[in-house]
Amino acid sequence: MGQSETLSVGYNPAPDAPPLVVAKTVVFNTLRNDVLVARQLNQLGDDKFVGSLTKNIELAEKLAGVCEKHKTSKTKGCKPAANVLKLFVKRLELASRKCDKPDACDEEREWSTFRKEHGREDDYKDFFRDWDRDDWHKHKKQCHRVITDEALKIIKDDAGWLIKFLDGKAEDERGKPGNGKHD
Q1: Cβ neighbours around 50 below 10 Å, total
Q2: Does residue 166 surpass a pLDDT of 50?
Q3: Do 127 and 133 form a contact (C-beta atoms < 8 A)?
Q4: Tens-place pLDDT, residues 22-37
Q5: Tell me: the pLDDT tens digits for 81-136?
Q6: What is the DSSP string of the chain?
Q7: How far apart are CA 1 and CA 62, in angstroms?
Q8: 52/39 Cα distance (integer angstroms)
Q9: Global confidence as pTM
Q10: Closest CA to 174 of 67, 26, 166, 165
Q11: If we measure between CA atoms, which residue out of 141, 76, 129 comes closest to residue 102?
Q12: Residue 164's CB: how many other CB atoms inside 10 A?
């Protein structure tokens, strides 16, 4: 799952030329950079929260690597990695709420649902083992979980493209009108 980011721009000034096409490749490193830049710009909670988010990205990337090793020609995408990134996005959405009461933005319910849904699946065994060992659990009650609307949009959009790819839907979306040809 590459460690680079590619942005291609093509332009043809001919009158009957097709519209300008911009292709963006989103990889796990793109998401990590989005999170780190948001933190540097004070648009994302404290270092402990950022650390837990980057840990989710790392674990999703690890799952994607496992999918690559077991991939056959008939299978498309990597549902476990996509599901971890969907949980990552849900955590950001919860953090974007203005919470007067800490319980209103408690992500424990989301984690419980995720564990209930996937906890017995072999594909997630390494994910849960590594997540359960993470330092986040020591600090989660004291950390500052916030995100600005701007940072949420950027990270959520990039995560969305990566999730589509991991779900095996990115290939289906290419070439459809109005899709922006994002890769």
Answers
A1: 19
A2: yes
A3: no
A4: 667 889 999 999 999 9
A5: 999 999 999 999 988 876 555 566 678 888 888 999 998 988 888 888 888 888 88
A6: --S---EEEE----TTPPPPEEEE---HHHHHHHHHHHHHTT-B--HHHHHHHHHHHHHHHHHHHHHHHH--TT--S-HHHHHHHHHHHHHHHHHTS--SSGGGG-THHHHHHHHHHHTT-GGGHHHHHHHHTSTHHHHTTTS---B-HHHHHHHHHHHHHHHHHHTT-HHHHTTSTTSTT--
A7: 10
A8: 13
A9: 0.75
A10: 165
A11: 141
A12: 19
CA dihedral over 59, 49, 96, 22, signed as positive or negative: negative
Other beta carbons less than 10 A from residue 162's beta carbon: 25
- Two structure tokens written together for 113: 């649902």
Q: Which two tokens stand for residue 22?
A: 């911009």
Question: Rounded to an integer, what is the distance from CA 77 to the centroid of its chain?
Answer: 15
Residue for token pair 């992500």: 107
Report the phi/psi class of residue 178: left, alpha or beta, with left for phi > 0 and alpha for psi in -120 to 50: left
